[in-house]
Structures are given as C-alpha cells and as structure tokens.
Amino acid sequence: MLQTMSLDNTIVLDNGASSLKIGKTNTEFCSIFPNSIFRSKSERRKNFISNQIDACKDYSSLFYVLPFQKGYLLNWDVQRQVWDHVFGKDVLNLKCNESNIVITEPHFNFASIQEAINEIFFEEYEFQSILRTNSSTLSSHKYAADNPGEDCCLVVDCGYSFTHIVPYHKNNKIPEAVCRIDVGGKLLTNHLKEIISYRQLQVMDETYVMNQVKEDACYVSMNFNDDMKTCKLKGKDNTVLRDYVLPDYTQIKRGYIKSNPKPDSVSTKSQEQMIRLTVERFGVPEILFHPWDVGIPQMGLAEAIMHSVSKCPQDTQPHMLRNIVLTGGSCKFPNFKERLEREIRCLAPDHLDIYVTLPHNPITYSCEGGLHWSKTNEIREHWLTLEEYQEGGQAACARQFYDI
C-alpha cells in the first residue's frame, strides 16, 4: 500500500501554538493562519476564527481563546473550530478524504494528546494517511536539502511558548540532547505589556497591539551595557529612544514608530496617543539570552546550545556548531543571529567553526521543509494509512510515529 500510495495531494500542517503554517505539495508557498479565536470589544457578540480577524475593524482589547496552553494542545473545541474553518470551502477547500497530511506536534508531547490527534485526523477528517512529527524535524529535512553534504544540523526553534534546541544527525533526532527553555514569543509580549503598563499606560488587555509594538520596535542588543548608557542620554544622543504611535482604529489603523521623536514630550498632536520606548526595545528580547532576568532559573540560549551539543556524540559536535539553523518568529529580531553567533563563539572551543543560518522566513521554514520531504520517496516509510490505523489502532500509531 505504501509503495503505491500517491503523494501528489499532501498537506503540510505546522500546527503552532500561535499560528498554523499550511502548504500543499502542488504549491511552493506556505500560508500562515492565526491559531486562535478572537472576540472583539467593539463587536461583543461576534467571534473571529483564525484569519477572520482580518475583517475586524477594531483590534483594541481583543480577547484571545487559544487552543494551546503552556505549549500543549488542551482546548480541543477551539482547535477543531480553527481546523474546520481553515480546511473548509471558504479557505483551503480541502477534500480531506482524498488527501494525506503531515502534522506537527510539540516536543515531549503527552500520549493522550497524540491519541486525540490520531483519532481526529483519521476518524473524523478521514485523511488517507498521516505523518505526525515535530516541526524541527521538518526544518532538518529542509536544511539537509539546501546544504547537500552536511549530515548534521542543530535546529533552534524559538516558538510561541518555548524555545527548543534539537540536534539531528542524518535527519535523525538525538533525543537525549534536546533542550528546552521556557521562553517564547508569548512571554516576551506579556513582559512588554507589564513594563509599559507599569511605566506609562495600561495596556494589559492590548495583546494584539503590543505584539505589533514588539515586532516593530524591539531588537537584540549587541552590547547591553552600552545601550543602557545610551538610554540615559538626552536629546539626539539617545539613539535608542523611539516614540510609538498607537492605533485608534479611526484615523490610524496600525501603530508605527514615529520619526524624529521629540525629547521633551511624548505626544506632539493631541489626537495621537504614543508610548515612549527606550530600555524596553532591547530589554525584552534579552530574556532569550538571560531568562533569569525575569526569574526563570534556566540557561540562556547560547549556554543551552552548548549544553545540547555536549550531549551529542563527540564526532558530530564540530558539525553541529557549524550548522545551526534558526526557526520561529522570535528569530526575526534585528541582531538576533549576530548576537547568538558571538555568544556561542565565546563558549565554544577556539578550534571549532561557528556558523548560524537565519532563513529568509524562519516562521514558514519547517512547513517548507515538510513540503520538500513530502515529495521524496524517503517519506513513504513514515506514513500510516487509514487502513493500517483501522487494523492496528493507536498501537500502530505509537509504533509508526515513535520519535520521528
């Protein structure tokens, strides 16, 4: 059955806690959809499912209903609504019973969640076959395809709930060397909300807007102490200072950084509501490198990478350090790659080469890897068909998807 199975109609679903990245084998493009249901303050009776949020006219005080909690899929009712919407005729118009699907799950996922995924995709959506794996595995296949001759890579996945460091040798995960840091995009946004709310303006309910502020204005510092000194300077000498104009959803639909901030006042126009950003710009992303700054007793990113490499077979360690690939939305902060490369260089032995790769789009990188992998014959041995599931049930899934 596996040898004759057609892979022409395969869907890759990178099921992240913040967004769904979906691609089809007949296209090279991966679409991104919010993995959430939103309720708007201005339209209290209406729910916006996933990309329906684009139709919302006022993003202030959006209430999020998330299927993931602390990195794991727990709210199945919300997740089903999001899947039904995205698979439905208004979005992908997907014929599930004529398709195969590659779906990602978190590292260290619970068996009960894995079993529920199997049941939903086989028994309810009736996919022809499924492959359940981690997003970092798909990234590994993408990196191997882009860098022929390299047998090793270290995937650093800065996701919504966690940051994972996962080493691979010949596209096989080294489980004992996988590391996790409990810092992700959600924690960074929440920390920024707390800082702004304490110092300037109550924004604890403005998750959507403050996430945009984080993406627009924050960066990774190359010299934290020097940037701190710069923040204390006055006038034009303070090159860190920025004024961010908040949206009012009448005249201003999306917030933006105001050019040439005035040193003596936060707002120059009465109709503009602004927040002033200084230390926050680089202090928030700094948590990735120093989690203990906010009370998380864990290693920073560079230390965790070196710890992960130390758990790999000794002959693979030099190859891991020169094949580090960054994925996930938090990798898009300016200077992220350069800072990480420099910190690893300080910790690694002098005779080893260090090279960090930042893909053009680190958010969809794993989905693109799944699309490439799904077009190869190698993937056939990893599929589980509907017929095999009906015969072997959950035991067949446990055998087929063990640590892929």
Automatic annotation (TrEMBL):
Any one cellular-component term (Gene Ontology) = cytoskeleton
The UniProt GO MF terms for this protein read: nucleosome binding
Q: Which domain of life, per UniProt?
A: Eukaryota
Pfam families xrefs: Actin
Which SMART domains does UniProt cross-reference here? ACTIN
* Entries under SUPFAM superfamilies matching the protein: Actin-like ATPase domain
Q: Which family does it belong to?
A: Belongs to the actin family.
- What name does UniProt use for this protein? Actin-related protein 6
Q: Which organism does this sequence originate in?
A: Ciona intestinalis (Transparent sea squirt)
